[in-house]
Amino acid sequence: MLETINLSKSFKGKKVVQDVNLYLNNGESVGLLGPNGAGKSTTISMISTLIKPTSGEIKLNGVNTIDKPGEIRRISGVVPQELALYQELSAYENLKFFGAIYKMKGKELEKGIQQALEFVGLEARQKDLVKTYSGGMKRRLNIAAALLHKPKILILDEPTVGIDPQSRNHILETVRMLNQKDGTTILYTSHYMEEVEQLCDRLYIMDHGKIIAAGTKAELLSILSTEDTIKVELNKMDETFVEYVKTIEGVRKVEASHSQMKIIATKGSNLISKLVHLAEKHHIQLINFHTETPSLEDVFLHLTGSKLRN
Amino acid sequence: MNSVLWVQFCKDKRNPLVILLFIAGSILATFLFAGGVYSPTTVAIFSEEENASEIETKWESLLNVDDSIQFEIVEPEEARTNVKDGNIDVAVMLMETDYRLVVTSELPSVSYVQQHVEKVFQREAQISAIVETQGEEDVRSEIENYLADAPFQLETQGTGSEQVPKYNLSTQLLFAFTFLISMFILGLKVNNVTNDKVSGIWDRMILSPMTKTNMYCGYVLDSFLITLFQIVVVLLMFKYVMNYEVGDNLWLVIMIAAFFTFSMISVAMLITGFIRTPEQFYAIYPSVIPLIPLISGAYMMPGTITNPILLFIADLFPMAHAMEAIMSVIFYNAGLQDVMMSLLFMLLIGVVAMGIGINLIERRSK
Fold first, then answer.
1. How far apart are CA B250 and CA B175, in angstroms?
2. What's the mean pLDDT when you consider all of chain B?
3. Are A260 and A297 in contact (CB under 8 A)?
4. B207 in A contact zone (CB under 8 Å)
5. In this predicted complex, what is the ipTM?
6. Which of A89, A102, A224, B7 could be A294's S-S partner, Cβ–Cβ 3.0 to 4.6 Å?
């Protein structure tokens, strides 16, 4: 349905997006995952035709959208990261305006507004001014504004930033319903791993402007199938001890914070016995340790060398 | 375009106080500053001589020779208190053959009164001297008759009509302050472009089927209508409620104001092209705008600014052209043909500034 081919964007000579190749099938829910500054927003701005790429192509059903942006604009809805709403107007007035710019009017507009409000659970407060809403309600209205013209593709740019868990769940549920019941194709960007894990069929992991991994959750987790993740709790943290752990054969990465250590090592490297021996030598007591099933967070750590929410 | 206009009106409807405050500010500024240009119409006179009432009666009739200044006899204490309290600029203390001005400071109105009083006293002194020399009382009436039909008489005539137009600085200041405030209103409205860009609403509009032309037209038309509304309300109030001299051709005055509004919206759009955030606009625009009436000589009598460089800079802004056209219409009964050049200048400034401004805004978006 939609694909990008070697999509790149430079600002003042600095490449912020480099050779991004991604595709979205009809009815699919795809996540674009990456830390802040990874280039996710720039990528979706290019996909939604808000900014022109420096090089590369974006094709909607084989047609280049850079030259002909009309069709993708017609069938897509974009939920921006910022709250693109008139705070001094009511939710109803906001939606009336956003519907009117899509040439909706009369009963069609009225019906669209009520459906969108119902969908995001704001119909009871539609006459209230947006500035009186909570952060979560504003975010929901931000989504409703993109749903009015019933888009086939919904592009969401970090729609849950800065809101409470309850509103977050509401938004995630809304997006899931749009995808599963209405068949809307979803492109969801976030730096919250668990959101993307919950919502998306496939994932693209982005860092420093590049796609560094892509696939289903299982495919991405298989990257770590040759590794064990072991979490260790110590009675005290010792920098020398951490350095020694790093030298143990098979250890690939060590993260230490306070009295805890997270060690990624090659499967079957008999790490625990070596660790016990080393701790005794350094007079450090191992309080607790367990082997973890790798998560997407671990995959990200493995691929980028840093945590997602740095 | 209609939807942009509608949403902007909705915002104003929710918060009409800003527009109302600007209208009130415009009226207040005119009162404060235009009201300050005081040309004394009534001047208090009094005498403290022994034969005070005789002296007062004599000089009252001699001083009230025309309608330009009305001299009125008051009690000495009242006159002094009024001058002291600043209620009046000047009072005249009369003596048998001399006078003293009671003032607190050298205001322009003082010399205006002094000129008149000095002329009357000098003439009376000359006539008295001749009467004393001749010893005949008839000489006075002879001289007065002679002067009434003197061989050399000065007659002033206007270029276009027999009546010499009377310039009124208060009227000029009314327009100067109305336009000054209107520039702030339109700036505030034009800044909505930047506000909506920063909030992301602009992007939503770009992704919709609405064309950019319609988007810009919506914002420009909104600024235009609100600003023109303010100008018209202020003018009507001053014309019909406060009886200011706004001329008989109100439609032409409003038309000039409309051209000025469009032209200034373009200048505001040009400034918007140079800035990134609404805050930058709020910092720059109010610093630049008060300079425009100053450079354009809107607060001064025509012809005060003679420096060619300043005059050239003034011509770059619409205000100089608007003031010139409006003053021509009000004081010299100029018609549409007469002010056409000023209108075209404003239109030209408007088109050029709007073109460059939108171009800059679009370049920043890329």
1. 13
2. 84
3. no
4. yes
5. 0.75
6. A224
